[in-house]
Design a protein that fits this description.
The complex is a heterodimer.
Chain A lengths: L9 H29 L3 H4 L13 H7 E5 L2 H7 L5 H7 L3 E6 L2 H32 L5 H10 L5 H15 L5 H25 L3 H9 L4 H12 L1 H17 L2 H6 L7 H4 L10 H22 L3 H5 L7
Antiparallel strand pairs in A: 1-2
Chain B lengths: L1 H5 L9 H7 L3 H30 L19 H7 L2 H32 L6 H9 L6 H11 L6 H10 L15 H26 L3 H9 L4 H29 L3 H6 L11 H10 L4 H31 L1
The chains are: A mainly alpha, B mainly alpha.
Main location (chain B): membrane
Membrane topology (chain B): Multi-pass membrane protein
Subcellular location (chain B): Cell membrane
């Protein structure tokens, strides 16, 4: 035999590759369909048979960001020719733009709550993870398991008392309330992941620093933190994606000021069955996560298993 | 490099607070670092849990907060465990859990096995396959209702294209027999990559020399697969099942957007059923008892499972 027994033959590779590529192409069809539908006109979106080739339009995006009202021919004549490209799109349907939609606000809420809770869960998580990694903490295993077990509660089950508690404290439908809530949910992930990353940094570095006259806190701050940057960054992205995607708490605890995009996007459909606008909203919301996933691919496995599988 | 890290010049002049933190003993510092996390978790997880237990013993209704609170003891629990509706949603959850786990394990393992053949470009294709898993289930679930539309939906069209039946003749979401499968299909589409990634890590953890030794012993490929590959991947596979099991037991966002529990209540999983009781019928006390029952169930099942997992690992 002229090759290693564990190296697959060329035929095997070719066969495996073909099957995987077919699966991959089928599996991304729904995603490409979301993106494609965002650039269709409402008529093209519901055409039969489904249209693969069509004339792209930004109608979906215009409808996503604006509210429109029907105008009589007289009003339209009075207004004169459309001023901008988006005016022109809307006028085709005898409509005028009456104002911005709520999508921008909801998207911004997602950004604020996502980043706010990510920052907090990384800040608290790094401190706790360092302590669990380096110090002898009584009941360490029990505490770590307690932190993980908070993730097992069905969100709806905790939502009842949290709903009542937020109502009492005036935190319902506020950014602060949602940031605190998502931080609490994400802490299990951030503590477990970060402890794994910090465990991998050799203790010798800190010991050298301590001998050199650093205090423990300085050693943590100036020696360990810089070494843990990659780990912290990928943990942060995981926390951000979770907060970004979360729906159950958002739909139950927010309704107006602090509502994030996931509960809002399904409501875009309205009575007009405007699928291109929904698809446009979904595209803008999903694409950042796709980019992050590609950036994260090396740490993906670790993140999704709370550090249980490190590869 | 080490010299640079520990050079004394980089120690800034510490402020008063800094000095106080910096001067703490290791043990004190450990608590300063851990306590904020524990406090937040107690406030947002444990305190609500205790509150839920308390509420579950009352007839409280959150939309009539001023009514007098009446203690009803374990009556809520009794009513739940004897309610056929709840057993129906338990059954729907069990059906959903069973089939999603079976499909995801089979497809996920097969994909991992194929990817492990190290064909050219396998990294790129793996990344593409993984994409659906990271996306918002609510947003994606909502869009799948469009893909599932009779006739114009891409899914129906694709099925029609392959099988030749009329794409307008069936409705995945509207049909009582198909609806449970509509949610299983979408969940499998989303989460198979999760099982795949974990299996792939398992496959890659098997050292080459084991296969080489088996080859020397003239063990057939088939035998190698069952005596080396499967046992070595099993702990990983079981871990994947644990994660998926817990997640799908809690399943809410994807299904609520996809079918909303319908048609009728055929896809009303326990979380959706609970949401209805708690936030539409406002039976707060009753649904608190329901929540506790669900939590105890998932916690109990997970604990038993983890014991089994540890036994497999030790072998």
């Amino acid at each position: 035999m002229n090759h290693s027994v564990t190296e697959p033959s060329r035929l095997q590779k070719w066969f495996a590759g073909t099957l995987v590529v077919i699966y991959a192409l089928v599996t991304i069809m729904p995603l490409t369909w979301i993106i494609a539908t965002g650039f269709k006109s409402p008529a093209d979106a519901i055409a039969y048979p489904p249209k693969l080739v069509y004339e792209p339009t930004l109608e979906g995006y215009v409808n996503l960001f604006t509210t429109r009202s029907r105008a009589t021919p007289e009003t339209l004549a009075q207004l004169g020719p459309p001023q901008t490209w988006y005016d022109r799109i809307v006028r085709q349907y005898d409509m005028v733009i009456s104002g911005p939609s709520r999508y921008g606000e909801r998207f911004l809420n997602s950004v604020i709550i996502g980043f706010g809770s990510t920052f907090l869960s990384i800040f608290l998580g790094t401190l706790a993870a360092y302590a669990f990694s380096r110090f002898r903490v009584p009941l360490k295993d029990d505490l770590m398991f307690f932190i993980l077990s908070t993730r097992m509660m069905p969100p709806i089950a905790v939502a009842i008392p949290i709903f009542l508690m937020f109502r009492q404290l005036g935190l319902s439908d506020t950014h602060l309330g949602m940031i605190l809530l998502y931080t609490a949910v994400n802490l299990s992930l951030s503590v477990w992941l970060l402890k794994g990353f910090i465990d991998e940094i050799p203790v010798e570095y800190e010991e050298a620093a301590l001998i050199d006259g650093y205090t423990r806190f300085q050693a943590f701050y100036k020696v360990v933190l810089p070494q843990a940057t990659t780990g912290i960054a990928s943990t942060a992205i995981f926390c951000l994606i979770f907060a970004w995607n979360e729906y159950a708490f958002a739909v139950l605890l927010t309704s107006g000021t602090a509502q994030t995009a996931p509960p809002f996007i399904p409501t875009i459909i309205g009575v007009g069955k405007d699928w291109p606008a929904v698809a446009a909203g979904a595209t803008l919301f999903l694409v950042p996560v796709m980019v992050f996933t590609i950036l994260l691919r090396k740490h993906l496995l670790r993140g999704i298993t709370f550090g249980a599988v490190r590869k | 490099m080490t010299d640079d890290i520990i050079s004394r010049e980089r120690v800034g002049a510490p402020g008063a607070l800094r000095r106080r933190i910096a001067g703490l003993s290791d043990r004190a510092l450990a608590w300063v670092f851990i306590i904020p996390t524990i406090v937040l978790l107690l406030a947002i997880n444990i305190f609500p849990l205790i509150w839920t237990i308390r509420l579950s013993l009352t007839n409280y209704r959150a939309n009539r907060a001023n009514d007098e609170l009446e203690w009803v003891g374990l009556r809520n629990y009794e009513r739940i465990l004897t309610n056929p509706d709840i057993w129906n949603s338990m059954q729907a959850t069990a059906h959903f859990l069973f089939w999603t786990l079976v499909l995801q394990v089979l497809i996920g393992f097969s994909l991992a096995y194929l990817i492990n053949k190290k064909f050219k470009g396998n990294d790129l294709w793996t990344t593409i396959i993984v994409l659906p898993m990271m996306l918002s289930p609510a947003v994606v679930g909502n869009f799948w209702t469009f893909l599932y539309q009779p006739q114009i939906g891409l899914f129906n069209y694709a099925v029609a294209f392959v099988t030749g039946i009329d794409p307008a003749s069936f409705s995945m979401i509207g049909d009582v027999r198909l609806a449970p499968w509509s949610i299983i299909i979408v969940d499998t589409w989303m989460w198979t990559p999760f099982v795949m990634l974990i299996c792939l890590a398992g496959l890659r953890s098997i050292p080459d020399y084991i296969y080489e030794a088996a080859e020397v012993d003239r063990a057939s490929r088939w035998r190698q697969f069952w005596t080396i590959t499967i046992p070595m991947v099993l702990p990983f596979l079981m871990l994947a099942v644990l994660f998926r099991g817990i997640e799908n037991f809690k399943m809410f966002d994807l299904v609520v957007q996809l079918t909303g529990g319908g048609p009728g209540s055929i896809t009303e999983l326990t979380s959706i059923n609970l949401k209805r009781e708690a936030f539409e019928k406002w039976r707060t006390g009753y649904s608190s008892a329901y929540a506790i029952i669900l939590f105890v169930t998932v916690f109990g099942l997970a604990s038993i499972y983890v014991k089994a997992l540890n036994r497999v690992k030790q072998r």
